[in-house]
């Protein structure tokens, strides 16, 4: 079985309100992250949060939900979908998509 889980994972802790684990985030102010709105470029994925701090995965492979069309495997433009996941976006940040799961509606990308 092929797995990309946690390969090259590196995280940073930021200030921020509680964000659902697995949601894409953006830098919203100095040292601070927030949940993304639809179309926002994302800097990483929330992995934990409490007491005004959010740990964000900012590097490595990560699996997130997607909406709309299935993102294309390869070097693909993505942006936030506004619901914690991502969507295909020609003008979005280019990410290396290595896996899609249409049943689970998830995509694995290299941040």
In short:
With 111 residues, the protein is an all-beta fold.
For the biggest β-sheet, the strand order reads 1-5-4-2-3
Task: Give the overall pLDDT as a whole number.
Answer: 96
Radius of gyration: 13 Å
- The strand count comes to 10
SSE pattern, N- to C-terminal: EEEEEEEEEE
Q: What is the helix content?
A: under 10%
Number of alpha- plus pi-helical segments: 0
Total number of domains: 2
Assign an overall shape: globular
- Low-confidence residue ranges: none
Strand content: over 45%
The separation of the N and C termini measures 22 Å
Structural class: mainly beta
Biggest beta sheet attributes: 5 strands, antiparallel
Question: What's the topology here?
Answer:
Blueprint: E1 10-15, E2 24-29, E3 32-35, E4 44-50, E5 53-59, E6 61-65, E7 74-80, E8 86-88, E9 93-101, E10 106-110
Antiparallel strand pairs: 1-5, 2-3, 2-4, 4-5, 6-10, 7-8, 7-9, 9-10
Structure explained in plain terms:
This protein is mainly β and 111 residues long. It has two domains: 10-59, no CATH class; 62-110, no CATH class. The chain is 0% helix and 53% strand. It is built from no helices and ten strands. The protein has strands at residues 10-15, 24-29, 32-35, 44-50, 53-59, 61-65, 74-80, 86-88, 93-101, 106-110. A hairpin with a 2-residue loop joins strand 4 (44-50) and strand 5 (53-59). It is globular. The mean pLDDT is 96.
């Amino acid at each position: 079985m092929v797995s990309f889980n946690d390969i090259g994972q590196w995280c940073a802790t930021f200030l921020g309100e509680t964000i659902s684990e697995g949601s894409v985030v953006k830098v919203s102010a100095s040292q601070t992250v927030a949940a993304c709105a639809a179309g926002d470029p994302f800097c990483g994925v929330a992995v934990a949060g409490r007491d005004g701090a959010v740990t964000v995965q900012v590097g490595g492979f990560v699996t997130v939900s997607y909406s709309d069309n299935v993102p294309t495997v390869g070097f693909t433009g993505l942006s936030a979908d506004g619901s914690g996941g991502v969507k295909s976006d020609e003008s979005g940040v280019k990410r290396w998509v290595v896996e899609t799961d249409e049943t689970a509606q998830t995509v694995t990308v290299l941040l």
